[in-house]
Write a structure and sequence with these properties.
Chain lengths: 408, 408
Amino acid sequence: MPTESEMTAKESLDPVISAPMHRAMEAASFIRQMFEEGNRLRAELGDDAVFDFSLGNPCAPPPESFFSALRTVAGESSPADHRYMTNAGRPDVRQWLARRLSAEHELDITSDHVVMTCGAAGGLNVLLKSVLEPQDEVLLLTPYFTEYLFYIQNHGGIPKAVPTQKSFQPDPEAFRRALGPKTRAVIVNTPNNPSGVVYEPALVEELGRLVDEHSERMGRPVYLFMDEPYRRIRYVDTPHPSALLVSRNGIIVTSFSKELGLAGERIGYVVLNPRIEGVEVLFGALGIATRILGFVNAPAFMQRIIPHCAGSTVDLSLYRKNREILIDGLTRAGYEMPSPDGAFFLFPKAPGGDDRTFCDALKKQCVLTVPGSGFGAPGHFRISYAVPTERVEKAIPLFARAIDEFSD
Amino acid sequence: MPTESEMTAKESLDPVISAPMHRAMEAASFIRQMFEEGNRLRAELGDDAVFDFSLGNPCAPPPESFFSALRTVAGESSPADHRYMTNAGRPDVRQWLARRLSAEHELDITSDHVVMTCGAAGGLNVLLKSVLEPQDEVLLLTPYFTEYLFYIQNHGGIPKAVPTQKSFQPDPEAFRRALGPKTRAVIVNTPNNPSGVVYEPALVEELGRLVDEHSERMGRPVYLFMDEPYRRIRYVDTPHPSALLVSRNGIIVTSFSKELGLAGERIGYVVLNPRIEGVEVLFGALGIATRILGFVNAPAFMQRIIPHCAGSTVDLSLYRKNREILIDGLTRAGYEMPSPDGAFFLFPKAPGGDDRTFCDALKKQCVLTVPGSGFGAPGHFRISYAVPTERVEKAIPLFARAIDEFSD
């Protein structure tokens, strides 16, 4: 029997959408609330008065090679370029990627290991759809990108948070303890959203070793999905670990959203590890998953653009400058944060200890940020510095004022 | 206890993908087998010897307005055009569509009733994700597009086939009997894939009336999803019924794949009925579903193209000509089929009665078609005439030869 309060809760749900979708909207509401709060403040006080560091919308412009590719490809377009294709994507583009990836990872990667996707979000959904048995667990290292929770639940899986070190570097011992009979995959995201931390390659290698041992033990592959859309947004020389080399079941998921500034175009790809036993079955499943989830194939026009932008990335100088101003200003003001060596995020400790309370205090200064609770890391908050530098400069005194409220 | 054969079946599944994905691949295999068989025949006998009517890949070229829009939009592109946007899609494009739709349906449709989608397949997945409770039923009128089964199962729903009349027109009485406490939606697809039948507006109105009555009775909306990507591919004057008018819970799902020849570009949209009680909640849910399923938003570049192609459609003369040749040739040869008034499909009765057997006989003539069993209508087979006319002309004698084998 449901209790009275459960019945009331159930009855009060608008039947226009499903109960699970109500729960998803509730879970997603902390970002919506922030967004609405931002709009309310802007309407009340004017755009200039509000300092919005809450969104992860990459603002560095696409490189010039992209705009010239747009014009070239538009001029060359023929009817067949716009039709259905193999669900995995255009063979010529996949071959082009496979050649580059083979050289980079020193593995024999063919076009049958590459699947073009609707961004990294599309890639992760397609992978999870392909491999998750009902109730399988997917490990997430804290802090993690909130949307992973939804992606995993979309396909009947259960997200399981794994603690990391104080520095937010992976903790292999905690990871080892989290592996269990239902573990099917881990999502490793470096450079990390929300922390900006760049994982140490030796630690990622250790995770890969543990995953491979666990696969052996369980008699089925435990996958290491390396979600690396921020890979080329790094401010240190730490090498980026190869998911394909650290684990025989390592798989790369990425997109051009950040490195080319194309988040709205929904173009990315998955690279399957040629060392996976039965990789051809997995490749076939990814094609079917791409089709039946409704993607059908990654957008055709943008697939053709990608080879024209080889080697280009967005100009990092904007992010670099914002990052320096913020690290300097916030450190002086007394904030502490893990090493923000990549992406365009800082993830400081919330002065006073409670992230929601502190984000509210920042909001009183018209500074919008995101509480760490939403990323599985209460006690911290996320600052996205994908904004004009002028906004960063003007916000420093406001950050300083907010922390003053919480000092002894 | 599983039986021995169940255990063997389970053990023989490659653990590289999940058991549900193995089942999906098995279910999808009849199309793959056809495709592989086609490739085998082509490799053996040469391209010219094989007559492939198995694929629904629209081949009428996009109109010239599309190619000129590509060049214009590519030339005008600015960095902000390629960033993340509201999950529902670009406000300017949604407003443009809303104005046209308001005039057409004589309803007050705003941009908050329009969601840009990754084709109609993306739109249906987003809708089903938003409204299905676990085990909710979705009604499908036979014959139906096979992929609906997957879309429904993706989101925990149960597809339920509803018989139609001999002509494959909707049967309101059978439909009424199929409505039950778990019914959440019906997908109505006219012009129909695979039958080519254009539903009579009066019958669709009757379905709408039954759906609205059932919504009242059940105290929650039962939706009528009108999947209408073939809407502008019709060869008769029968008007196309408005989903928004036939039911207060009628919703339009469509794409530009067929009418502009852009199947690979993944661009379409959903129109919510402004008369739905709580439509603003449903609109919000569609945004979240778009995001968490990994679409995030419909491809940005193609959204900008659409308003430039207003009123254009592909040139139907190719399809029209192929259709006439086939109807004439097949009827003379003794085939019977429901009225093929739209799309680019014929769905004749399989001579001899067994569709798989007859498709095998056609294959011996190097003619590839799809058995109706895959569309919930055994005893028929699908011919897609989205192919060059020369192929159609040469295939007529082969169709005639195949039916001769099955005549008394």
